[in-house]
Amino acid sequence: MLSRVSQVQKVYITSLSNSSIAQIGDSKCINAISRALAVQREAEIFFGNEGEFSQYPIFSEPIPLPPLEAQLHFQKIDLPPCIKVSHIKINGLASASIFHIGNSDSVYMESRVKHIRQLLNENNKGGE
């Protein structure tokens, strides 16, 4: 793992929600997964048997990852071993987002959202 020291004088975070993380310090592995069903309806109806991720294939299909076989050509430049920041201001972190000060060896982030729009048919719409 690349080893650098991070120095931050002040951090201001207004809001953390929905499994978000603010971490100060090194981490070996970060694995953040967020799943959501977003249902929009014309009528305010809840049937009681909704919300099972297993009903929707999008939540179980494998995510294709690009192959790691590419040839890399790079030039190494030894930078100072310290990253210095005066202050950081964040309005909000949501939906399994991560704010991390430090070194990370492995990071995997995944977000899956199923949007469902349920409209009333013409027979159920009241009116003339």
TrEMBL record:
InterPro entries: Spore_germ_GerPE (IPR024496). Pfam families: GerPE. It comes from the Bacteria. This is Spore germination protein GerPE. The gene is gerPE.
